[in-house]
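Course assignment 3, question 2. Fill in each field.
Student: A.L.
Task: Predict the tertiary structure for the chain below.
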Amino acid sequence: MAAGKRRGIHPNTGSGNSFMGNSFSGGNTRLSRLNFRPSSNQEDRGGTRPTTAPSSIGLIFVTMFLHVCKKSLLFDTRLKVAIYCGVIFTISLVADFVIMPRSYFSRSDNALNRYFVKWGWGWLLIVTIPWVVLTSHTLGCGRRTILLKHLARLVLATLAWLTWIKLFNYIENNFGRCVNTKEAQLQFKVKCLQAGKFWNGLDISGHSFILVYSSLILAEEGSSMIGWEGIKDLIMREEHCRVTPNETSFGPLRNLSDNDLEFLKKAHKICTPYLRALFVVMTMQQLLWDVMLVSTVLYYHIMIEKFLGGIAAVLTWYVTYQWWYKSPKNGLPPPGDGLFKYNEVKPQRDLTVARARRSTLNGTNNKFMGLPIRTGQDNPEKIVSTSRQSEIETP
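Answer field:
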Protein backbone atom coordinates (compact mmCIF):
# COMPACT_ATOMS: atom_id res chain seq x y z
CA MET A 1 0.00 0.00 0.00
CA ALA A 2 1.37 3.36 -0.95
CA ALA A 3 2.00 6.01 1.65
CA GLY A 4 -0.84 8.45 2.28
CA LYS A 5 -0.74 11.90 0.76
CA ARG A 6 -2.03 14.83 2.81
CA ARG A 7 -3.83 17.76 1.27
CA GLY A 8 -3.36 21.36 2.26
CA ILE A 9 -5.23 22.70 5.23
CA HIS A 10 -6.70 25.60 3.23
CA PRO A 11 -7.57 24.33 -0.26
CA ASN A 12 -8.50 26.82 -2.95
CA THR A 13 -12.21 27.54 -2.98
CA GLY A 14 -12.26 28.91 -6.51
CA SER A 15 -10.86 27.87 -9.86
CA GLY A 16 -7.12 28.02 -9.81
CA ASN A 17 -6.90 28.42 -13.61
CA SER A 18 -9.00 31.55 -13.80
CA PHE A 19 -6.97 34.73 -14.00
CA MET A 20 -9.87 36.87 -12.85
CA GLY A 21 -10.56 34.53 -9.97
CA ASN A 22 -6.96 34.72 -8.82
CA SER A 23 -6.88 38.48 -9.10
CA PHE A 24 -9.98 39.06 -7.00
CA SER A 25 -9.75 36.18 -4.57
CA GLY A 26 -5.99 36.04 -4.12
CA GLY A 27 -5.97 38.40 -1.13
CA ASN A 28 -8.81 36.57 0.60
CA THR A 29 -7.16 33.24 -0.07
CA ARG A 30 -3.90 34.37 1.49
CA LEU A 31 -5.76 35.71 4.54
CA SER A 32 -7.73 32.49 4.86
CA ARG A 33 -4.49 30.54 5.05
CA LEU A 34 -3.28 32.51 8.08
CA ASN A 35 -3.79 30.92 11.47
CA PHE A 36 -3.53 34.42 13.05
CA ARG A 37 -5.52 37.06 11.18
CA PRO A 38 -4.99 40.77 11.88
CA SER A 39 -8.09 42.68 12.84
CA SER A 40 -8.58 46.38 12.27
CA ASN A 41 -10.85 46.73 15.31
CA GLN A 42 -8.40 45.11 17.75
CA GLU A 43 -8.55 46.80 21.14
CA ASP A 44 -5.67 48.90 22.46
CA ARG A 45 -3.78 46.88 25.06
CA GLY A 46 -1.53 49.73 26.15
CA GLY A 47 -1.05 50.73 29.82
CA THR A 48 -3.76 52.82 31.45
CA ARG A 49 -2.30 53.54 34.90
CA PRO A 50 -1.08 57.12 35.45
CA THR A 51 2.62 57.78 35.79
CA THR A 52 4.50 60.36 37.80
CA ALA A 53 5.38 63.61 36.08
CA PRO A 54 9.07 64.02 35.20
CA SER A 55 11.14 65.70 37.92
CA SER A 56 12.97 68.94 37.33
CA ILE A 57 16.70 69.31 37.89
CA GLY A 58 16.09 71.50 40.94
CA LEU A 59 13.82 68.90 42.51
CA ILE A 60 16.43 66.21 41.91
CA PHE A 61 19.08 68.21 43.80
CA VAL A 62 16.61 68.94 46.61
CA THR A 63 15.80 65.24 46.87
CA MET A 64 19.49 64.36 47.02
CA PHE A 65 20.11 66.92 49.76
CA LEU A 66 17.12 65.68 51.76
CA HIS A 67 18.45 62.14 51.41
CA VAL A 68 21.71 63.22 53.05
CA CYS A 69 19.76 64.96 55.83
CA LYS A 70 17.75 61.80 56.44
CA LYS A 71 20.94 59.82 56.88
CA SER A 72 21.88 62.13 59.76
CA LEU A 73 18.58 63.00 61.44
CA LEU A 74 16.83 59.65 60.94
CA PHE A 75 19.77 57.57 62.08
CA ASP A 76 18.63 54.47 63.98
CA THR A 77 17.47 55.88 67.32
CA ARG A 78 18.30 52.76 69.32
CA LEU A 79 21.84 52.77 67.99
CA LYS A 80 22.01 56.52 68.59
CA VAL A 81 21.00 55.99 72.23
CA ALA A 82 23.74 53.40 72.65
CA ILE A 83 26.30 55.82 71.16
CA TYR A 84 25.15 58.68 73.40
CA CYS A 85 25.36 56.58 76.56
CA GLY A 86 28.71 55.10 75.58
CA VAL A 87 30.26 58.47 74.72
CA ILE A 88 28.96 60.16 77.87
CA PHE A 89 30.26 57.36 80.09
CA THR A 90 33.67 56.67 78.55
CA ILE A 91 34.79 60.15 77.48
CA SER A 92 33.49 61.73 80.70
CA LEU A 93 35.40 59.16 82.72
CA VAL A 94 38.58 59.96 80.81
CA ALA A 95 37.98 63.71 81.17
CA ASP A 96 37.72 63.31 84.96
CA PHE A 97 41.33 62.10 85.14
CA VAL A 98 42.94 63.75 82.11
CA ILE A 99 43.15 67.51 81.73
CA MET A 100 41.64 68.42 78.38
CA PRO A 101 43.26 71.19 76.33
CA ARG A 102 41.46 74.49 76.58
CA SER A 103 39.50 75.73 73.57
CA TYR A 104 36.69 78.06 72.65
CA PHE A 105 34.14 75.45 73.73
CA SER A 106 35.69 75.20 77.20
CA ARG A 107 34.49 78.73 77.96
CA SER A 108 31.03 78.77 79.50
CA ASP A 109 30.31 82.14 77.90
CA ASN A 110 30.82 81.00 74.30
CA ALA A 111 28.10 82.07 71.89
CA LEU A 112 26.79 78.58 71.18
CA ASN A 113 26.37 77.87 74.87
CA ARG A 114 24.82 81.22 75.75
CA TYR A 115 22.40 81.64 72.86
CA PHE A 116 21.59 78.08 71.86
CA VAL A 117 22.07 75.59 74.70
CA LYS A 118 20.75 77.93 77.40
CA TRP A 119 17.65 78.45 75.27
CA GLY A 120 17.72 74.97 73.79
CA TRP A 121 14.13 74.06 74.57
CA GLY A 122 12.85 77.24 72.96
CA TRP A 123 14.83 76.52 69.79
CA LEU A 124 13.40 73.01 69.78
CA LEU A 125 9.81 74.24 70.00
CA ILE A 126 10.38 76.87 67.31
CA VAL A 127 11.13 74.07 64.84
CA THR A 128 8.94 71.22 66.05
CA ILE A 129 5.66 73.13 66.56
CA PRO A 130 5.27 74.20 62.89
CA TRP A 131 6.49 70.77 61.81
CA VAL A 132 3.84 68.98 63.86
CA VAL A 133 1.13 71.44 62.81
CA LEU A 134 1.81 71.02 59.08
CA THR A 135 2.17 67.24 59.14
CA SER A 136 -0.85 66.57 61.35
CA HIS A 137 -2.98 69.09 59.43
CA THR A 138 -2.19 67.23 56.20
CA LEU A 139 -2.44 63.67 57.49
CA GLY A 140 -5.60 64.44 59.44
CA CYS A 141 -7.24 66.14 56.43
CA GLY A 142 -7.95 69.24 58.51
CA ARG A 143 -9.31 67.41 61.59
CA ARG A 144 -8.69 69.68 64.58
CA THR A 145 -8.84 66.82 67.07
CA ILE A 146 -5.98 65.03 65.31
CA LEU A 147 -3.95 68.24 65.27
CA LEU A 148 -4.41 68.79 69.01
CA LYS A 149 -3.48 65.20 69.81
CA HIS A 150 -0.21 65.55 67.92
CA LEU A 151 0.58 68.86 69.63
CA ALA A 152 -0.05 67.16 72.98
CA ARG A 153 3.20 65.23 72.48
CA LEU A 154 5.17 68.48 72.62
CA VAL A 155 3.18 69.66 75.64
CA LEU A 156 3.97 66.42 77.43
CA ALA A 157 7.65 66.68 76.46
CA THR A 158 7.78 70.22 77.86
CA LEU A 159 6.21 69.08 81.13
CA ALA A 160 8.72 66.24 81.36
CA TRP A 161 11.60 68.67 80.79
CA LEU A 162 10.37 71.04 83.50
CA THR A 163 9.82 68.16 85.92
CA TRP A 164 13.32 66.78 85.46
CA ILE A 165 14.97 70.20 85.79
CA LYS A 166 13.12 70.89 89.05
CA LEU A 167 14.07 67.44 90.31
CA PHE A 168 17.73 68.04 89.47
CA ASN A 169 17.68 71.34 91.35
CA TYR A 170 15.93 69.76 94.33
CA ILE A 171 18.54 67.00 94.56
CA GLU A 172 21.40 69.48 94.37
CA ASN A 173 19.93 71.83 97.00
CA ASN A 174 18.89 69.20 99.51
CA PHE A 175 21.50 66.49 99.14
CA GLY A 176 24.68 68.53 99.40
CA ARG A 177 26.70 70.36 102.02
CA CYS A 178 28.56 73.59 102.47
CA VAL A 179 32.30 72.91 102.47
CA ASN A 180 34.51 73.92 105.43
CA THR A 181 31.64 74.87 107.72
CA LYS A 182 29.17 73.13 109.98
CA GLU A 183 26.83 76.05 110.61
CA ALA A 184 23.22 74.94 110.25
CA GLN A 185 22.08 78.13 108.53
CA LEU A 186 24.70 77.63 105.82
CA GLN A 187 23.54 74.12 104.90
CA PHE A 188 21.43 75.57 102.13
CA LYS A 189 22.90 76.26 98.73
CA VAL A 190 21.77 79.89 98.50
CA LYS A 191 22.99 80.77 102.00
CA CYS A 192 26.26 78.95 101.44
CA LEU A 193 27.01 80.76 98.20
CA GLN A 194 26.02 84.12 99.67
CA ALA A 195 28.51 83.56 102.48
CA GLY A 196 31.27 83.01 99.95
CA LYS A 197 31.54 79.30 100.62
CA PHE A 198 31.62 76.38 98.20
CA TRP A 199 28.58 74.14 97.87
CA ASN A 200 29.33 70.47 97.23
CA GLY A 201 26.26 68.73 95.81
CA LEU A 202 25.17 66.34 93.08
CA ASP A 203 24.65 68.74 90.17
CA ILE A 204 23.01 66.49 87.60
CA SER A 205 23.76 67.93 84.18
CA GLY A 206 20.72 69.65 82.72
CA HIS A 207 22.73 70.23 79.54
CA SER A 208 23.24 66.52 79.01
CA PHE A 209 19.53 65.95 79.53
CA ILE A 210 18.27 68.63 77.16
CA LEU A 211 20.82 67.89 74.42
CA VAL A 212 20.15 64.15 74.36
CA TYR A 213 16.39 64.51 74.79
CA SER A 214 16.11 67.19 72.09
CA SER A 215 18.09 65.10 69.61
CA LEU A 216 15.85 62.10 70.19
CA ILE A 217 12.68 64.20 69.83
CA LEU A 218 13.95 65.66 66.56
CA ALA A 219 14.65 62.17 65.25
CA GLU A 220 11.23 60.84 66.28
CA GLU A 221 9.24 63.79 64.95
CA GLY A 222 11.31 63.90 61.77
CA SER A 223 10.38 60.29 61.02
CA SER A 224 7.16 61.66 59.51
CA MET A 225 9.27 62.51 56.46
CA ILE A 226 9.74 58.82 55.66
CA GLY A 227 7.46 58.13 52.70
CA TRP A 228 6.11 61.69 52.64
CA GLU A 229 7.09 62.31 49.03
CA GLY A 230 5.24 59.14 48.01
CA ILE A 231 1.87 60.52 49.16
CA LYS A 232 1.62 62.32 45.82
CA ASP A 233 1.78 59.00 43.97
CA LEU A 234 -0.77 57.45 46.33
CA ILE A 235 -3.19 60.29 45.60
CA MET A 236 -2.70 59.91 41.85
CA ARG A 237 -3.35 56.16 41.95
CA GLU A 238 -6.38 56.55 44.18
CA GLU A 239 -7.92 59.15 41.85
CA HIS A 240 -7.31 56.84 38.91
CA CYS A 241 -9.03 53.92 40.64
CA ARG A 242 -12.06 56.03 41.52
CA VAL A 243 -12.66 57.29 37.98
CA THR A 244 -11.89 54.01 36.21
CA PRO A 245 -14.76 51.51 35.93
CA ASN A 246 -14.21 48.02 37.31
CA GLU A 247 -11.06 49.20 39.09
CA THR A 248 -10.75 48.28 42.78
CA SER A 249 -8.47 50.29 45.05
CA PHE A 250 -6.26 48.47 47.52
CA GLY A 251 -4.18 51.51 48.53
CA PRO A 252 -4.03 53.18 51.95
CA LEU A 253 -6.28 56.04 50.76
CA ARG A 254 -9.23 53.83 49.85
CA ASN A 255 -11.16 54.72 53.03
CA LEU A 256 -10.96 58.49 52.49
CA SER A 257 -13.99 60.33 51.22
CA ASP A 258 -13.80 62.39 48.04
CA ASN A 259 -13.64 65.62 50.05
CA ASP A 260 -10.84 64.29 52.26
CA LEU A 261 -8.91 63.11 49.20
CA GLU A 262 -9.22 66.52 47.58
CA PHE A 263 -8.16 68.24 50.82
CA LEU A 264 -5.17 65.92 51.14
CA LYS A 265 -4.11 66.66 47.57
CA LYS A 266 -4.14 70.43 48.12
CA ALA A 267 -2.61 70.36 51.60
CA HIS A 268 0.22 68.05 50.56
CA LYS A 269 1.10 70.27 47.62
CA ILE A 270 1.13 73.43 49.76
CA CYS A 271 2.86 72.08 52.88
CA THR A 272 5.58 69.94 51.30
CA PRO A 273 8.01 72.81 50.42
CA TYR A 274 7.78 74.19 53.97
CA LEU A 275 8.31 70.74 55.45
CA ARG A 276 11.42 70.25 53.35
CA ALA A 277 12.88 73.49 54.68
CA LEU A 278 11.95 72.61 58.27
CA PHE A 279 13.52 69.18 57.87
CA VAL A 280 16.82 70.77 56.87
CA VAL A 281 16.65 73.13 59.88
CA MET A 282 15.92 70.18 62.17
CA THR A 283 18.96 68.37 60.80
CA MET A 284 21.19 71.40 61.39
CA GLN A 285 19.87 71.75 64.93
CA GLN A 286 20.47 68.09 65.67
CA LEU A 287 24.08 68.38 64.46
CA LEU A 288 24.56 71.44 66.67
CA TRP A 289 23.22 69.56 69.70
CA ASP A 290 25.69 66.73 69.03
CA VAL A 291 28.60 69.18 68.89
CA MET A 292 27.52 70.83 72.13
CA LEU A 293 27.05 67.44 73.78
CA VAL A 294 30.68 66.59 73.03
CA SER A 295 31.68 69.97 74.47
CA THR A 296 29.70 69.26 77.64
CA VAL A 297 31.22 65.81 77.97
CA LEU A 298 34.75 67.19 77.68
CA TYR A 299 34.63 70.31 79.84
CA TYR A 300 31.65 70.41 82.23
CA HIS A 301 30.44 68.41 85.24
CA ILE A 302 31.76 65.07 86.39
CA MET A 303 30.99 61.73 84.83
CA ILE A 304 28.18 60.63 87.16
CA GLU A 305 26.34 63.95 86.78
CA LYS A 306 26.43 63.84 82.98
CA PHE A 307 25.59 60.16 82.84
CA LEU A 308 22.54 60.55 85.10
CA GLY A 309 21.31 63.44 82.97
CA GLY A 310 21.65 61.35 79.81
CA ILE A 311 19.93 58.35 81.40
CA ALA A 312 16.99 60.55 82.44
CA ALA A 313 16.64 61.76 78.84
CA VAL A 314 16.77 58.22 77.43
CA LEU A 315 14.19 56.94 79.93
CA THR A 316 11.79 59.78 79.12
CA TRP A 317 12.18 59.17 75.40
CA TYR A 318 11.65 55.42 75.76
CA VAL A 319 8.55 55.67 77.97
CA THR A 320 6.87 58.20 75.67
CA TYR A 321 7.92 57.52 72.08
CA GLN A 322 8.76 53.84 72.26
CA TRP A 323 6.05 52.62 74.62
CA TRP A 324 3.23 55.09 75.33
CA TYR A 325 2.65 56.51 71.84
CA LYS A 326 2.95 53.09 70.20
CA SER A 327 0.37 51.45 72.46
CA PRO A 328 -2.94 50.87 70.65
CA LYS A 329 -5.09 52.57 73.33
CA ASN A 330 -2.88 55.36 74.59
CA GLY A 331 -4.86 58.41 73.47
CA LEU A 332 -1.84 60.11 71.87
CA PRO A 333 -0.80 59.15 68.32
CA PRO A 334 2.81 58.58 67.26
CA PRO A 335 4.46 60.88 64.70
CA GLY A 336 3.14 60.33 61.17
CA ASP A 337 -0.22 58.96 62.31
CA GLY A 338 -3.45 60.21 60.72
CA LEU A 339 -6.44 59.03 58.73
CA PHE A 340 -4.23 56.69 56.72
CA LYS A 341 -0.86 54.96 56.86
CA TYR A 342 1.59 56.14 54.25
CA ASN A 343 5.02 55.16 55.62
CA GLU A 344 4.12 51.50 56.08
CA VAL A 345 2.87 50.87 52.53
CA LYS A 346 4.00 47.54 51.13
CA PRO A 347 3.70 46.74 47.43
CA GLN A 348 0.54 44.70 46.97
CA ARG A 349 -0.01 42.40 44.07
CA ASP A 350 -2.96 43.33 41.91
CA LEU A 351 -5.50 40.53 42.27
CA THR A 352 -6.93 40.98 38.78
CA VAL A 353 -3.50 40.77 37.19
CA ALA A 354 -2.63 37.75 39.31
CA ARG A 355 -5.82 35.94 38.36
CA ALA A 356 -5.36 36.73 34.66
CA ARG A 357 -1.78 35.50 34.78
CA ARG A 358 -2.84 32.34 36.60
CA SER A 359 -5.61 31.64 34.09
CA THR A 360 -3.17 32.17 31.23
CA LEU A 361 -0.78 29.66 32.72
CA ASN A 362 -3.61 27.20 33.18
CA GLY A 363 -4.62 27.56 29.55
CA THR A 364 -8.08 29.06 30.07
CA ASN A 365 -7.20 32.21 28.11
CA ASN A 366 -5.66 31.95 24.67
CA LYS A 367 -3.06 34.70 24.73
CA PHE A 368 0.37 35.20 23.28
CA MET A 369 2.66 37.88 24.78
CA GLY A 370 -0.31 39.47 26.52
CA LEU A 371 -2.46 39.74 23.36
CA PRO A 372 -5.49 37.53 22.67
CA ILE A 373 -5.08 34.98 19.90
CA ARG A 374 -7.75 35.35 17.22
CA THR A 375 -9.12 32.01 16.18
CA GLY A 376 -11.67 30.98 13.60
CA GLN A 377 -14.37 30.88 16.25
CA ASP A 378 -14.07 34.63 16.94
CA ASN A 379 -15.39 35.74 13.50
CA PRO A 380 -17.05 32.77 11.81
CA GLU A 381 -18.76 34.84 9.13
CA LYS A 382 -15.46 36.16 7.78
CA ILE A 383 -13.67 32.85 7.46
CA VAL A 384 -14.34 30.18 4.91
CA SER A 385 -14.86 26.99 6.84
CA THR A 386 -13.12 23.97 5.47
CA SER A 387 -12.75 20.49 6.78
CA ARG A 388 -9.58 18.56 6.90
CA GLN A 389 -9.70 15.40 4.83
CA SER A 390 -7.17 12.65 4.76
CA GLU A 391 -7.14 10.45 1.70
CA ILE A 392 -5.20 7.26 1.47
CA GLU A 393 -4.23 6.54 -2.10
CA THR A 394 -3.93 3.02 -3.12
CA PRO A 395 -1.68 2.02 -6.02
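Instructor remarks: Residues 115-344 form one domain. The beta strands are 5-6, 177-178, 199-200, 367-368, 371-372, 390-391.
Grade: pending
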